[in-house]
Amino acid sequence: MDFFQKAIERFDAENGRDPNAEIDGGVPHPRELLYARRLTEWVLRLAPGTSEALRLAARCQHICRWTIPREAYPITRAGYLRWRNDLKQFHASKSGAILREVGYGEEMIAKVRDLDLKKNFPADAESRVLEDALCLVFLEFQLAALARRTAEDKLINAVRKSWEKMTDAARERALALPLGLAERRLIEHALAGSTRRGALQGTTQ
Known about the structure:
By secondary structure, the chain is mainly alpha-helical. The protein folds into 2 domains: 1-119, no CATH class; 125-205, no CATH class. It contains 9 helices and 2 strands; from the N terminus they run H-E-E-H-H-H-H-H-H-H-H. The chain has helices spanning 3-15, 31-46, 52-60, 77-102, 106-116, 125-147, 152-165, 168-175, 181-191; strands spanning 21-24, 27-30. A hairpin with a 2-residue loop joins strand 1 (21-24) and strand 2 (27-30). Helix 1 (3-15) packs parallel to helix 3 (52-60). The N and C termini lie far apart (46 Å).
């Protein structure tokens, strides 16, 4: 078995321990395992034949995320930012250790770490692919659930920030998603009055 396959199996085994379940196709799955697979699928749809480093980075982006819950930090802006930063460092450290254990060298480990930490975003093309995939997973699979527990103004702001980070090609993909009317309305509100509003009608800027 090669390094890549060993790493994927290790990442999936770790995420398979997630005690939180999400239903997909009527079947419950460990949430972070399902997330990793969805993110990988979007990366491959956006960039078929992409590099080994990007495929690895997609699979371990949120590895063992449930072990550092948001509730462990102050419910403030500063607490949120510290939580996000600690998560990034944890994911990078955890995935790096696994890559090292299965036999990868430090050069590949550094590439995966840089992608997961978005170190060279947006200049690096592969970091753009990964960010596009992250945003598309959010819009396709998480937006509806988030809308049920989030104030509309905060949700609109989150959608707007995601949209601004996406490439035009990813925005076109987003507009083709099978979203419900409520989710489309949120996107319309997020883009209203912005320079990207034309993208909602299928045009690019």
